[in-house]
Specification:
Layout: H1 2-29, E1 57-62, H2 69-79, E2 87-91, E3 101-104, H3 110-119, E4 124-127, E5 141-146
Parallel strand pairs: 1-2, 1-5, 3-4
Antiparallel strand pairs: 3-5
């Protein structure tokens, strides 16, 4: 009977040593981390929703190279609640502006600019005082520069085709 007990304890001791050996090997190989560090979680940025504020005047500048986009966008804005007197349009100084952008002057105008960008079907929103009226710095105005991303016709290449 004593022989069986010694054999049983020998078997248990061998099994414990094998399990400990496997565990240590896994730790050394990096498959088990005894002291894991907390991974930083990404903090979601809150989505800012715009406000449609028809008290702003809107200037639409066509820099897409395609005619009448400014007129079409002016009609869209007027149909969204702005008075026709508060929305003006015209050509831009350049005809190769890449992305349609809504410009606003002060931080207080940001939500209105985002709202206007939503009204026109999406656009970049950028704070810049380039279009601010120096004679009337308190004027509530947003400026839309229509880019080539809104053009339905591909711009013509100035280079002749290669044959």
């Amino acid at each position: 009977m004593n022989g069986w007990i010694v054999l049983l304890w020998s078997f248990v001791a061998a099994l414990v040593l094998i399990v400990i050996g496997i565990f240590v090997a896994l730790v050394l190989m990096g498959r088990i981390n005894l002291f894991p560090t907390a991974e930083p979680t990404a903090v979601p940025t809150p989505e800012v929703t715009g406000v449609v504020d028809t008290t702003y005047s809107v200037l639409v500048l066509n820099a897409s190279g395609e005619e009448n986009l400014d007129v079409q966008l002016q009609e869209t804005i007027v149909n969204s609640g702005w008075s026709a007197d508060s929305v003006s349009y015209g050509p831009a100084g350049s005809q190769d502006f890449a992305d349609t952008t809504v410009y606003y002057v002060s931080e207080a105008d940001e939500l209105a600019a985002i709202g206007l960008a939503d009204v026109i079907g999406g656009a970049e929103v950028v704070q810049d005082d380039f279009y601010a009226d120096p004679n009337n710095p308190d004027q509530k105005q947003l400026v839309i520069v229509i880019g080539t991303d809104r053009a339905t016709v591909a711009p013509e290449s100035e280079e002749p085709p290669v044959e």
